[in-house]
Amino acid sequence: LTNKKFHPSPTSVSVDGWAIGPETLTIMAGPCAVETEEQLLAIAHAVKESGAQFVRGGAYKPRTSPYSFQGLEEEGLKYMQTAKKETGLRTICEVISEDAINAAVKYVDMIQIGARNMQNFQLLKEAGKSGLPVLLKRGLAATIDEWLNAAEYIIAEGNPNVVLCERGIRTFETATRNTLDISAVPVLKEKTHLPVIVDPSHATGVYSYVPPLAKAAVACGADGLMIEVHNDPAHAMSDGPQSLTFENFRELSAELQPYVSLA
Ligand code: PEP
Ligand code: MN
Q1: Ligand 1 probe mutation, 112, 113, 164, 230, most atoms within 8 A of CB
Q2: Are the CB atoms for 177 and 204 separated by under 8 Å?
Q3: Residue 16's domain spans which residues?
Q4: Contacts of 170 (CB under 8 A, 6+ apart)
Q5: How remote is the CA of residue 121 from the centroid of ligand 2, in Å?
Q6: Structurally, how many domains does the chain consist of?
Q7: ipTM, two decimals
Q8: In ligand 1, which atom is closest to the CA atom of 112?
Q9: Long-range CB contacts for residues 3-10, cutoff 8 Å, separation at least 24
Q10: What range(s) does the DAHP synthetase I/KDSA domain occupy (predicted)?
Q11: Beta pairing partners, 20
Q12: pLDDT per position as a tens digit, 148-183
């Protein structure tokens, strides 16, 4: 179902009137975690002004430590819905359980399966049944074939609306949080008809590396980007060091404008 051999032309995934695919450059931006309503609304307005079509924000956070902030859960989803009402942006949230999916369908436009759950096959099936478009991130140490098989699980449940997101993989290199596998973009473009976006924020863990890799991703054929943006990165409850300020994000968006019109 993911294989280009049986579906040669590229697929676009439609989310509330916006087509994610080769005809557009999709920008999803927002905080790692939804922290407060005020924070989310401020960020949503800022990223909208810079040209993003989606606001992202985690309400269920799959944190490495159980003692780190775990997210606002359903309350956070409600703030996402408010952000959509105020800005018109489409919304995307990560889900980590069947309960989270059942809540997400009430409040957001698209769900995300995170790297840590890429091979949570039960969750993939539930995401397939949810009827919502799904952003499927690459697992921390997943091969491209394993990743495509994960997408296959979702589509096999009757949900063809899957977008892939390269977010870096584990390597021996420690200078960046992960290593962005930029070659995944052309490899996927040859293997699958599904749209592919790139997340340089989780790939690098360092805000200053985000703009150059965002541009590299677009230059090599990515259909979009997911970028973490925060009103006050120094005090973010998660992933502050990789978050762009409003000003940084505005600059990057301006630099991407020529690609937006080419897409
Ligand atoms: C995220 O997007 O907030 C996230 C946790 O990303 P990943 O699953 O890629 O680590
Ligand atoms: Mn994050």
Answers
A1: 112
A2: yes
A3: 4-262
A4: 140, 141, 178, 179
A5: 22
A6: 1
A7: 0.98
A8: 2
A9: 3/148, 3/191, 3/192, 4/190, 4/191, 4/192, 4/193, 7/193, 8/193, 9/193, 10/193, 10/195
A10: 19-256
A11: 13
A12: 999 999 999 999 999 999 999 999 999 999 999 999
Atom 3, ligand 1: residue with shortest CA distance: 32
Answer whether residue 263 shows pLDDT above 70: no
Residue with tokens 């049986």: 6
Contact assessment for residue 14 and residue 218, using Cβ atoms and an 8 Å cutoff = no
Torsional sign, CA 5, 8, 14, 18: positive
Structure-token pair, residue 229? 């943006």
Chain segment 13-28, per-residue pLDDT in tens: 999 999 999 999 999 9
Query: Quick one: pLDDT at residue 5?
Result: 95
Question: What's residue 262's pLDDT?
Answer: 65
Mean pLDDT of the chain: 97
| pLDDT > 90: percent of the chain | 97
Is the Cα dihedral 109, 193, 50, 112 positive or negative? positive
CATH number at residue 82: 3.20.20.70
